[in-house]
Design a protein that fits this description.
Elements lengths: L2 H31 L6 H10 L1 H10 L11 H17 L1
Helix pairs in contact: 1-2, 1-3, 2-3, 2-4, 3-4
Length: 89
């Protein structure tokens, strides 16, 4: 890959993780205000695609941290780190 392609890939990853963080923040705000919520399935799908933002959102907003199935976000993060390490080596 060329340096430009690496930069584009990195920007895409950052954008996806920022969107993931925002999804968790949005759902937390709706939980507090009583609005329509984001489904757990959607939040887990977001965590699968962009786990850094999801874990960041869970910790920053203290949201979905007690639910057992949301511990999967940490496994998704680990899987992403392993894949990144394999790609870079």
């Amino acid at each position: 890959m060329t340096p430009w392609e690496w930069q584009l890939a990195l920007c895409a990853i950052l954008a996806l993780n920022l969107a993931s963080l925002c999804a968790y923040g949005f759902d937390k705000r709706r939980a507090v205000t009583g609005g329509r919520r984001v489904s757990e399935r959607a939040l887990l799908a977001v965590a699968l695609i962009a786990p850094f933002g999801a874990v960041g959102g869970m910790r920053a907003f203290r949201h979905k941290t007690r639910k057992a199935k949301f511990k999967l976000a940490y496994l998704f993060l680990l899987a992403h780190l392993i894949v990144a390490a394999l790609i870079l080596t």
